[in-house]
Amino acid sequence: MAQAEKSQTAWTQLLCSALATILDCWDSDGAQQELDEVSLLTAITVFIFSTSPEVTTIECLQKRCIEKFNFALESKDPVVQLKCYQLLFSIFQCPNRAVSHPYIHSLASLIVSKLQETEKTKPETVAELQVVQEGIKVVAALIALAKEEHRKCLHHAIWCTDCKKLCW
């Protein structure tokens, strides 16, 4: 039994190291980025769904992963934004709340505010329109995932122009 526990611990440490390496590949200024943002976001998402929560809920790693999605949501590239929304749609629906809720709490209000920006700046290209449509799909999923008693608050927050924090 002790050998199995040692193996499990070593395996978890290896996976944590691999995730940290992926995160290290991402240089925020883009100057030395080895892989494109979409590939890195996809790799992070694969880790989230393929490894145990012991790996992906380690606070320092989880915070860095969320930060990468935050950067992608703020990207000027509609392809990056679109893929980010698609991946977050999956993460938000993860049945393990320890995995999904930190992403929801950290990114939902940004997603709503990005959608509210479209009231001022209408999409000018098909790609920009697809981003808005995907954002709406994510928000609809968030409303469906919210507890019944929070849906009214969430609905109000989405339609309120000065929304700062959502009810979860």
From TrEMBL:
Highest classification ranks of the organism: Eukaryota, Metazoa, Chordata, Craniata, Vertebrata
Domain of life: Eukaryota
Organism in which the protein naturally occurs: Sphenodon punctatus
Record GO biological process: endocytosis; intracellular protein localization; retrograde transport, endosome to Golgi
GO cellular component: cytosol; endocytic vesicle; Golgi apparatus; membrane
UniProt name for this protein: Uncharacterized protein
